[in-house]
């Protein structure tokens, strides 16, 4: 049984930092691309980042480029999202997902949720 579990969310002031973690169990971690997504109240879910299975390619949404960094640790079957210089508009539920094949077009697709294994999310709230 595949389980994807996010952690590390919380309340932080604008300009602060948080590191999210996502642990995937029950799958061969090396075989999966990993993505971070977020959904703010009243908005659609959007892709934040996607990292290839070998970490050679990492993609970011324009809104987080230069502030967020996604990495993966194969020994721990864990994906990370380091979030710096946080803004109130980064407030959302953050989700981690594992999928096969390539990042594109999955992580920017409006129906990305139809594919792969998803966690339950971790809340990030940035106060102004």
Structural overview:
0% of the residues lie in helices and 48% in strands. It has 128 residues and is mostly beta strands. Strands 2, 4, 5, 6, 9, 10 and 11 form a seven-stranded mixed beta sheet that branches. Strands 1-3-8-7 form a four-stranded antiparallel beta sheet, with no helix packed on it. It is globular.
Bulk shape: globular
Topology pattern, helix = H, strand = E: EEEEEEEEEEE
Kindly name the structural category: mainly beta
The unreliable regions are none
Summarize it.
0% of the residues lie in helices and 48% in strands. It is globular, with a radius of gyration of 13 Å. It has strands spanning 3-7, 10-13, 18-25, 33-39, 46-51, 58-60, 68-73, 78-83, 92-99, 117-118, 122-127.
Main traits of this protein?
single chain; 128 residues; mainly beta; seven-stranded mixed beta sheet; four-stranded antiparallel beta sheet
What is the strand and helix layout of this fold?
Elements: E1 3-7, E2 10-13, E3 18-25, E4 33-39, E5 46-51, E6 58-60, E7 68-73, E8 78-83, E9 92-99, E10 117-118, E11 122-127
